Amino acid sequence: MSDDTHKGTTRRGFLGTAAAAGGAVVGAATAARAAGPDPLITEVQDWASSFGDPVDATPYGMPIRFESHVVRRNVEWLTESPVSSINFTPIHALEGTITPQGCAFERHHSGAIELSKADYRLMINGLVDKPLVFTYEDLMRFPRASTTAFCECAANGGMEWGGAQLEGCQFTQGMIHNMEYIGVPLRLLLEEAGVQPEGTWIYVEGADASSNGRSIPMEKAMDDVLVAFYANGEALRKEHGYPVRLVVPGWEGNMWVKWLRRVGVYHAAVESREETSKYTDLMADGTARKWTWVMDAKSVITSPSPQAPIRHGKGPLVITGLAWSGHGKIARVDVSLDGGVNWQEARLTGDVKSKALTRFHLDIDWDGSEMILQSRAIDETGYVQPTKDELREIRGLNNVYHNNGIQTWWVREDGEVENVEVG
Amino acid sequence: MSKLANVLTGAALLAVTAGAAQAEGFGLGREALPEEIAAWDVAVLPDGTGLPEGSGDVWTGDEVFAEACAACHGDFAEGIDSWPPLAGGLGSLQDRRPVKTVGSYWPYVSTVWDYVHRSMPFGAAQTISADDTYAIVAYILYSNGLVDDDFVLSHENFTEVVLPNAGGFIVDDRAETEYPRFSAAPCMSDCREPVEITKRAVTLNVTPEDPDGKPAGTLPPIMASAEAAEVEATETAEAEPAAAEEPAAEMAAAYDPELVAAGERVFNKCKACHKIGEGAKNGTGPHLNGVIGHTAGSIEGFRYSKAMLEAGENGLVWTDETLGAYLADPRGYIPRNKMSFAGLKKQEEIDAVIAYIATAGAM
Predict the structure, then answer these.
(1) N or C: lower Cβ tally within 10 Å for chain B?
(2) Closest residue in chain B to residue A72, using alpha carbons only
(3) Which pLDDT tens digit goes with each residue over A335-365?
(4) Whole-angstrom Cα distance, residue B68 to residue B265?
(5) Which of B160, B185, B216 delimits the end of a domain?
(6) Are residues B1 and B61 in the same domain?
């Protein structure tokens, strides 16, 4: 659809792109001549002669062993305890926009609990006409809706506030996943209980020992918040809140309460620990912003990147990455090969959905010289992803959260890639 | 008809409209009982909404804190290792390394009360009574120099306590301070002088690494991946028999491997504080290597509670039986010891975790 006519895919666009990169245009598509017949072709391989696995070998499949490096990873020194910690999605190794549940990042405050559908209860109480308790079975009888949304931790990129620190977009931008959810609009449940006029806030909390809870204004609660039980076509995984989690499109991941057990209706924000001492953004002057819920537009080149170096040498090179905005759809993504001096528009590949990950590609003819790669997202409101220095100028160095600054990768002549900052 | 039609036509989230359902509702769920609401609705707001009656003084708080909180937060709420400090840091919010504590950063005392009562102690949440919560909060206020040592916090004076940074927060103002600035039409060419690299993550060297020194998770070369996978598989295969020659593995053979595996899962509840296995060090709790057969309170280098040291002096040795009894009821078995863990309720879990500790910690 959007990927057949844009610049970069036609021969003319291809050459134009390479020229814009400032490199010599190499004889782009001249195929190499084989030194001799390839035994993988000329000899009968085992797999072409004998049996593979039978259909009863793997009732629920895992990725083939050759992909065993594509896993969530954590950074041990970040936290004191692995049950109150975070790991990172291997975005450098994924394509498209949907994140497989099995490698989608996890953030727990007291570990991932095992809660069965039979033991699940959801309470709605507070400023409502009739406080209610729902079983999982009850929830399954409400009309369902679908939404595809990114879930990004507000601290994604938080370790990079002071400067380039971690090697790889898995670690610098990997506190994010994007799934297709099915569930009940929270609005239907609130309406079932009957929200009283003075009920202007809800407070949502989880069933785990952290009892993680956040306040959400009623307007958002009645808008696009989903009480979800399916993700990417199957039940939620334990680590993502099985059997029920909240989906709060465009807003910081901490509010997407897992193992959702209570929705309280209040006249004010609860001002819980997670919305005062944490998830508030300390400014240079010592004041702090609170209720910074929306995740601003952001993008990152996922390949090449430090964990995805260029191994094939010069010639055709696929540059790919992700862009997203909590304010709506991505309108455009620009890519720079020279650290932000010159920019060119990348191709948005596949559907562009509001508050969901968008995939971009730029196909170039790499001349083998070093590049300083950056990507810049522009969303439908006209917001342009800022540089890290522009953010620091406003917010100082202690902000921790909401670092949506432009990421810079230094691609060396040998194809290895480093996380750097430029000035 | 209208309700159903509405629902069926709405594939997208917003299309499930409110109007139809509002009038009569779906009749799903049941009314929540007062006892159920009391059990689950424990939120406390800055204006005192949700606060139960009760009180607690600084001295009681000091005692409760020492038992339930100090293992991580320190005797004086100063924070041990990377666990959060709860006191100090006043005036540090503009420093390069601000210290964000209840005294220096938190805006509301209700937040402290709510969090201690619902989420603490770490690993034993919802075990602190209302009066003890008042006492702990009073002690935290005292540790921050905000109240005197004769202070008593209660539901009556609760809303009078104002924390120093109560006025330190502003509501998200990005729409005014950032969005206009970041909404200009972006420059496409010759946007700046040629750039220089000013910072390199590699100089900090804090990224997790693969065995070859590359950033963890680096994609293997496509054209060598099958071969690389072969090498990896061979290395693992070779490593296993080598390990079997060590005495640790022989001792471990006494336990059913399935029980040990189950115990490893149970140990997830312990590993926030206790390390075990090769290279394990003391953390919030002592490391557990060789703990079976060891005298209580005698792992080198760990600061035990007086109660645990006394138990050891009185001859307590950790065996399957004694450790089992301790894990079933840590505070009942050795009153006033430091471990803030409620205990394991199921005997299968106790048996399994002991099998795991004996196996993984065999030295």
Answers:
(1) N
(2) B217
(3) 999 999 999 999 999 999 999 999 999 999 9
(4) 25
(5) B160
(6) no
